[in-house]
Amino acid sequence: MVFCQSLVAAVCAFSEHLLAVLNQFHSVGLDSEQDPQDQQEVQEAGRRWLDQISSAGLMLHFQSLLSPNLTDEQAMLEDCQVALMDLEKVTFYFLQFEGEPLVANMPMSFQVEGSRQALKGYYYRDNVSVEEYQAQINSSSLEKVKQYYKRLRLQFYLYAKVTILI
At a CB cut-off of 8 Å and minimum separation 6, what does 108 contact? Predict the structure, then answer.
């Protein structure tokens, strides 16, 4: 159970940080009030973070209020230690979306496969900005509403036709 919780915490923290960095890359230049020097610094910081995690890996911070002096809590700390050591065997891969996204209304999603001995996390990201992605979601949703309207109209037409015949 501890490994599952550690893995979910690691994946969520990594996803949020990665999404923030990618959004900074796409939003640079959109804010006309922002200083160009600041924009370059933001992009450079994001690029350095991506270089760091690709070469050294992701650093996670673990904090606990458990006491190693109590027997029950010592066992819990040992479980946490094993789970955190197992996180070293997790590898992330980045892939482009092929077809529909795995999670609706999200510019990035992930899928995890494997076992505790060798776990692979696949991150899927579309190659468009957040604004373009929102436009894609809106157009897709509009198409679904139109299809629903056609089905509803057809059902109403068939119901009205049957009612009149009876």
Answer: 15, 18, 19, 22, 123, 124, 125, 126
> What would the two tokens of residue 49 be?
């973070």
Bridge partners of 113? Answer: 120
Q: What are the tokens at 141?
A: 């949703």
pLDDT tens digits, the chain, 166 residues: what are they? 588 888 888 888 888 888 787 777 666 555 556 677 777 787 788 888 888 887 878 888 888 888 888 888 888 888 888 888 888 888 888 777 676 666 666 666 777 788 878 888 777 766 555 566 567 667 777 888 888 888 877 776 665 555 555 5
Closest CA to 106 of 140, 55, 156, 147: 140
In whole angstroms, what is the distance from residue 70 CA to residue 140 CA? 56
Q: Which two tokens stand for residue 119?
A: 């776990």
- Entry pTM: 0.59
Q: Cα Rg for the chain, rounded, in angstroms? A: 24
Edge to edge, the sheet with strand 118-125 lists: 90-96, 118-125, 108-115
